[in-house]
Design a protein that fits this description.
single chain, mainly beta, SH3 type barrels, L,D-transpeptidase catalytic domain-like, five-stranded mixed sheet, globular
């Protein structure tokens, strides 16, 4: 969408901006992505001279939103966020106007998510050097001023429920980041995947827990030049001989079988169209993806997750939610980028305490797509009483979801969204795409 360009001086600029933003708040009750369109005539040369004297302020109001072209038919909407949203990266002051001198409404907690309306960027002086950038946001509160986190307030509106109100404010971009659902990249990759699927013979690399054997060291190392680890991978040779160079291809990676050559499957990776020769023991069957009907897209940069379903020949969006992907440390690794076959689902899996063999807890409603990488709900840590292990029960919410990579490799969801995906999943028809804009 086109930005609003407004050029005014001093207090007049702030007054006009206040009117514009207050009106846009009014309209946003009906549509959360409305920006008032204002046409301002070019200032005269005399006015420009006065601006130069007084260091005029030039500002732009714009919507930074990526809208989907696929139809939206949500089957899950427990934590609805605007298409762009704001994540507070520390305790963040929210002001009544886009100025540090404006009235302080409240201080948002670290990792709080706010609904996004528009961005305001200020420029100073004749040279229009970049100044402050602010985000116009809103959130939900009840009559007691209690804030409803992560968009949950919107889902609690309605008959028989508490009446909540939208509260509007402004946060500086130095203290918060704008995130978004990158529908353009999602849809582009889905269309490419569908083209591959029409040709058939889509299957996946299989080496969970190195069941079919550790591949050889890559140039004497446990990781290849691209950083892919040896464990739970298959070797992808550049020619049909084990004497040639190779890379590691992770378990679960979706590939197209081109031909069988002397104990190798000649394959093409769906994610980037590169071709390799994989020993036959790592490919269980020539065609594992019988029908492509469901796709889950995980965005590592924005820390969100979107599901798509094909209905009557057309793709539609069935859920948009926040998620947390894998980090990097001694016991963790990033959720790998790529295109993966959803191999299995389990009601839960157990995880161990770092650096030990002790079971620490479990994660519910799981879908495995790459090695030990699962999509799952909020992890549950066991409690111990008198030497007995106690299950405290499922946990729905974690404020860290949708913030920064924190998991060991998995994709952590609100438990209700994990359950939705768990129930929605169809065996041999579901694919995971992990992207990073």
């Amino acid at each position: 969408m086109k930005p609003i360009n407004i050029l005014c001086t001093g207090c007049a600029a702030m007054l006009l901006l206040s009117v514009v933003l207050l009106l846009s708040q009014k309209f946003s009750y009906d549509t959360e992505h409305t920006v008032l369109r204002v046409k301002v005539s070019e200032p005269s040369s005399a006015v420009r001279k006065e601006e130069e004297k007084n260091q005029a302020i030039d500002f732009i109001v714009e919507e930074e939103i990526v809208e989907p072209s696929f139809p939206v038919k949500l089957k899950y909407n427990a934590y609805p966020m605007t298409l762009s949203y704001v994540v507070c990266e520390g305790d963040t002051n929210i002001h009544a106007l886009p100025s540090q001198d404006a009235k302080l409404l409240r201080t948002a907690q670290k990792w709080e998510k706010l609904q996004y309306i528009e961005s305001i960027t200020f420029f100073k002086g004749v040279k229009r050097s970049t100044g402050e950038k602010w985000y116009h946001v809103y959130w939900y509160e009840n009559e007691d001023g209690e804030v409803f986190a992560d968009g949950s307030g919107q889902s609690q509106q309605g008959e028989g429920k508490n009446t909540l109100k939208k509260v509007f404010g402004f946060v500086g971009s130095d203290f918060a980041s704008r995130r978004y659902f990158d529908f353009h990249q999602m849809e582009e990759k889905i269309q490419k995947l569908e083209g591959e699927n029409k040709e058939g013979n889509l299957t996946y690399i299989s080496n969970y827990k190195n069941y079919y054997g550790l591949p050889p060291l890559c140039k004497g190392k446990e990781v290849d030049e691209g950083g892919t680890p040896r464990s739970q991978s298959a070797p992808g040779y550049f020619s049909a001989t084990k004497n040639s160079s190779f890379i590691y291809i992770p378990d679960g990676t979706l590939v197209k079988c081109l031909e069988y050559v002397n104990g190798f499957w000649h394959v093409r990776l769906v994610q980037n169209e590169t071709q390799y020769f994989v020993p036959e023991r790592y490919i269980l069957r020539k065609e594992a993806l019988t029908t492509l009907s469901k796709i889950i897209v995980i965005d590592r940069k924005n820390q969100n997750i979107t599901s798509f379903e094909k209905y009557e020949g057309n793709w539609q969006i069935t859920s948009c939610s926040l998620a947390t992907t894998g980090t990097t440390n001694q016991y963790a690794q990033p959720t790998p980028l790529g295109c993966y076959f959803v191999i299995e689902k389990k009601p839960q899996f157990y995880y161990i305490k770092d650096g030990t063999d002790e079971i620490q807890g479990y994660a519910p409603y799981t879908l495995r797509f790459c090695g030990g990488a699962y999509i799952h709900g909020v992890s549950v840590s066991y409690k111990w009483e008198n030497g007995k292990r106690i299950d405290p029960g499922l946990k729905e919410f974690s404020s860290s979801i949708g913030t920064v990579p924190l998991s060991h490799k998995c994709v952590r969801n609100y438990t209700s969204h994990a359950k939705f995906l768990y129930d929605w999943y169809t065996q041999n028809e579901t694919v995971v795409l992990v992207i990073e804009p």
